[in-house]
Amino acid sequence: MNEKGKTLLAETLKREKEGALLAASDPYRLKFHLMPKAGWMNDPNGLCQFKGVYHVFYQYSPLDAKGGMKAWGHQTTRDFIHWEHEPAPLFPDRDFDRSGVYSGSAFIHDDRMYLFYTGNVKLDGDYDYINNGREANTILVESGDGHRFSDKELLMTRKDYPDDYTCHIRDPKVWEEDGRFYMIQGGRKTGDTGAALIFGSQDLRHWTFEKELKTDGYFGYMWECPDYFELDGEKVLSFSPQGLGSERYRFQNVYQSGHVVLQKSPVDFTEDDRVDESTFEEWDHGFDFYAPQTFLDEKGRRILIGWAGVPDADYDNEPTVERGWQHALTLPRVLHVKNGKMIQIPVEELEELRDEAFKINAGEKKRLDRETFEMAIRPETGKEFQTVFECGCEKIVIEYTKDCVFRLQISEEAGRGRKLREIRVDELRSLRIFMDTSLIEIYVNDGENVFTSRFYFPRRDRTVCVEGADRIKGWYLSEMEGN
Ligand code: FRU
User: Fold this and answer.
1) Confidence grade of residue 483 (pLDDT, cut at 50, 70, 90)
2) Is residue 23's pLDDT more than 90?
3) Which end of the chain has a smaller Cβ tally under 10 Å, C or N?
4) Which of 13-27, 175-189, 207-221, 277-291 shows the lowest per-residue confidence on average (mean pLDDT)?
5) Which residue among 42, 129, 138, 139 has the greatest number of ligand 1 atoms within 8 angstroms of its CB, and so is best to mutate?
């Protein structure tokens, strides 16, 4: 890290200390979701397991809870329960990343960790920052231990990208296939269509543009944070398109994140091949989800973590901004494709958080002794279903209707603009609910659909009432350590 980086790190450490003081009196501080020590957090970055240790890097603006300068934050764990806050490793301290150390990924090779990211540069002047005035440099940093990082190496600049793209190219993710390395990046083509770019390399340092992945018709003006992986025999492309119109049961947030199934690996794509957008499924239907990334752990699990937030939303998180921080990451979720459906299940390690179990009968309004808990519910087959969490006059309502609509509704004050999210589901078979102080994750039908949302209850006490269920189990959850 150069002098500029060291100054930013010192300022960050100071803010983090101040943040720790505020934390004690903060009712919205999360107990089992990763959140920033101070300031703003967005996309998960550089997810990997390296020499036994899980590394979660993320977009981090430690100096301002409303965002601004983008650095990388860093937390590590061996078990998803005990976490260590590492010093922020990357700051915008070089000319080629001076306006932000943007998103990127980790690639583990020959016992080394390679971090690839986008160095964002906004030139001073009268520019539109789409077609001009912006640089998106591809940068590499290496590590032998996951804690000390090499100098930044500039790998690619504008001249390495195809001409028919705007300045918006970013978020590299790397994989290996048949002894060669490939990198996918998200982009906005001239004419405002989203696409992904594929680069190839023999040595992880010299990259050449090879091809692009695009749809036949318009499917958003920009694709952010692309990811490619094989899972249970399927070839999966994940990306976060911007610019899709909202529909009643789809695309209800301002920007989307989802996955499509590819007929062949991007490596084998020819000029004539297209991404079939009709297979696009959203990862999450809640109010707060965007820019997920996946990685393969040493047990062979494909794990996804998303940003439990969304940019440019018309709802807010003022209650945490007032306490000096904003946003969080989702629980780590193991992915599988089963019967042609993508399913997401929180890593089983989280069962260690289960403390005391609690009992509750259908139709009974129960006062909850703690704010953080997990519930597993088996709804009655073919019936209407409802779960209501209440705190004073505020409510979170989860329901399944006669006409097969699954809904999440949040009341006025608690939602801060978050009102209704709904999808169609043929039948409701199971629900698993993870309730943190100000974040809820709802897993529908064994993880076939997920809803992630922030909410702000005015007080700590809450009740729950479940109607239309055969079986309800609950566990109070203890706090992760070191978050
Ligand atoms: C997605 C994103 C990425 C970018 C980063 C900047 O949320 O816009 O495309 O690299 O955030 O923080």
Assistant:
1) confident
2) no
3) N
4) 13-27
5) 42
The residue whose CA is least distant from atom 12 of ligand 1 is 102
What tokens does 272 get? Answer: 């004539």
Instruction: Give one DSSP letter per residue of 308-352, joined into a string.
Output: SS-TT-SS--HHHHTTTEE--BPPPEEEEEETTEEEEEE-GGGGG
Which DSSP letter does residue 40 get? E
Give catalytic residue positions: 43
Q: What is the mean pLDDT of the chain?
A: 97
The closest alpha carbon to 175, from 263, 13, 294, 63, belongs to 294
The SS3 call for residue 393 is coil
pLDDT tens digits along 212-233: 999 999 999 999 999 999 999 9
Neighbours of 300 (CB within 10 A): 6
Q: Is the pTM value of this prediction over 0.90?
A: yes
Confidence at residue 24, expressed as pLDDT on a 0 to 100 scale = 84
- Residue among 97, 103, 239 whose CB has most ligand 1 atoms within 8 A, to mutate: 103
Ligand 1 centroid–CA 273 distance in Å is 27
Ligand 1 atom with minimal separation from the 120 CA: 10
